[in-house]
Amino acid sequence: MKYLLPILIAATFSFAQWGDWGGGGGGGDKSINEYKKISVSGREVYVYAPSGLKDNSPLLMSFHGMDQDPNYQQSNTHWEAVADSAGFVVAYPKGATGYSTWDISGDQDTKWITQIIDQMANDYKIDKKRVYMSGFSMGGMLSYHAMGKIADKIAAFAPCSGYLMMGAGTAQRPVPIFHTHGTSDNVVGYDGLENNLKSYRQQFKCPDKAEVEDNHPNGENRATLYTWGPCDNGIYVKHLKLEGRQHSPSKADVSDIWNFVKGYDLDGPIGASKPESSASPASSADVAKSSSSGTGVGPGQSSSSRGFGFGHRSSSGTAVGSSGGTQSPWGPIVTSSSSVSLAVSSSAAIGVIGVVSSSSFEMFAALPEDPSLLRVSVYRSSDNSIMVSNAQGKSITVFNSLGHVVRTTRGTAGVQKVYTGAKGVYIVKVGSRAFKTSL
């Protein structure tokens, strides 16, 4: 902290001026006095909730810089303008100590943040899986610090003009990051940002090369948007580079921030097929159809194998289907179907999971014999590709809905893109496990 104080105190004398509203969603003419001031564990938090707010709405917390306050942060970001149209709660917490600093080395403030979240859940019935954190300058540093402390409470992070100047920390999990920073920042220098972001991208196993969007719309500065992903768990890391921006928060950036963070909850990308738990493999009656018979059975099976061959093992070790068919050529299939319910079978041979689909068709899928396959997951990414994680060294085969092989490859460490193609149902076989997903 002693190294940061002389640098950060200078921030109060070097803020750039800002222009008109740059695309934040309209409005933005409220003052902090129109917010509700509450006390959480004896400390102030200013809260804005749009009229007609629905239960289970998101929460966004915006943290000010050193030697500043919620009034300064709110008057320059006007998050209420976006909240009115998007329907979420905004909170501006107030820092402690005489210089209004944040604890970016311990857990005083991260513990307090969890108390704020609990209070918002009690007062506004917010969705605790959709809590987002943004902060300016030292508030941005606090955002990075929180990644290593309470990433299980925050779905996505959006630091602005602030990073951990003594070196990047270690995040608890791969988290979505949207970092905005001006190239003329003379308080928290732009030159130090890349090494910080690179550390997190490496932790999250992001692609080395970014997608670059020149002339990204911004109401104040010429902007370039850099995107790395998909990374582990399907998350993305983005950086909005603002040419000539000095050290200041801005309402010109909040729409970009919101459009990014709103796509995530604590489970990952909202609306994407989530990685399935290998402890509860499941199956569904609407698996891939055969190219030869079109009867709804796997490739190579006859139309009489109506059980699809998803079976528990007999005492002799032969896989048998619930209707007498042979085992599926894909092996036990994991599906993301929300219509599937699970029940434990009483089979004495080995532990299996019984599955009843919405059509009441009962099947069984054995747990994988290779323990390393328990870590494998398959899901659809936000760019509509099939992703596989934790499959290092395993053979990967992708089948389309006709049972045709459309891709074969070898698994790598971390997350990899294995297929991008036409919409439809796909079976992805990883080693002896198979997953059902769709594009």
Quick structural summary:
By secondary structure, the protein is α/β, with parallel strands linked by helices. Helix content is 15%, strand content 26%.
Question: Could you please describe the fold and organization of this structure?
Answer:
By secondary structure, the chain is α/β, with parallel strands linked by helices. The protein is 15% helix and 26% strand. Strands 1-2-4-3-5-6-7-10-9-8 form a ten-stranded mixed beta sheet, with helices on both faces. The protein has a five-stranded mixed beta sheet with strand order 13-23-22-19-20, with no helix packed on it. It has a three-stranded antiparallel beta sheet with strand order 14-15-16, with no helix packed on it. It is globular, with a radius of gyration of 25 Å. It starts with a helix and ends with a strand.
Question: What key phrases describe this protein's structure?
Answer:
439 residues; alpha/beta; globular; 26% strand
The tally of strands reads 23
Instruction: Report the total helices.
Output: 7
Mean pLDDT: 78
Termini separation:
49 Å
Low-confidence runs of at least 5 consecutive residues: 5-27, 275-327, 336-367
Assembly state: single chain
The largest pleated sheet is described as: 10 strands, mixed
Estimated structural class: alpha/beta
Widest β-sheet, arrangement of strands:
1-2-4-3-5-6-7-10-9-8
Kindly estimate the percentage of residues that lie in beta strands according to DSSP: 25-35%
